[in-house]
Task: structure prediction
Amino acid sequence: MKRSIRIIAVALVAVMLCLSLAACGKKLSGTYEPAATSGGILGGIADAVNSGVEYTFKGSKVSIEVTVLGNVKTFEGKYSIDDDKITFEFEDEDAKTYAGTQTFEELDSGNIKIGGVEYKEVKD
Result:
């Protein structure tokens, strides 16, 4: 009887462990900047007005650095990825523009796409 209970307990623990690992979504790590910042029409415009968005991912946290006309503002928040969607959550009222769900794609090149904009990882 004790042996049966132990076997069932071990089986339940194994199932719970598998389910908890499956619940962990995709996570990103590193800093990503727009891939077109030094070329093309949009890249040229962004360079000319010194504007853009840079994402830094670490675990389930994200930091977004927004540059508009040379002025830099940073927002801290959380993100989650579910299939082809990424959702951002920020407590700062000024970050409402960047909060919400957008399309997400990982490209074969190692770049990512958020809301249709391609971003490349910044290498140190």
